[in-house]
Request: fold
Amino acid sequence: MAGDKGKTRAPRAEAGTARAEERLVDLELRFMKLERFALELSHAVAEQQGTIDALVKETKRLRERFPSFAPLSTIFVRDVRWIWWETGDA
Reply:
């Protein structure tokens, strides 16, 4: 009887190992996907930061060019351009 127990456990151990390997492969694939998504997100953030930096630079340039609009410096550049167009100061 003791020999029978050992024989029935071997297939279970192999099945457990196969499931562990399958789970490991699944986790590795999920990790690779998450890594790719993180890289894509990093590129998007870098692109957005470049746009923000360009807008800040443009805002500073406009503030220097038109000091009378200094109180409006917190308004987006497109809104300031609209104000200039409306007032004829463009």
Remarks:
- The CA atoms of residues 25 and 31 lie 10 Å apart.
- Residues 84-90 have pLDDT under 50 and may be disordered.
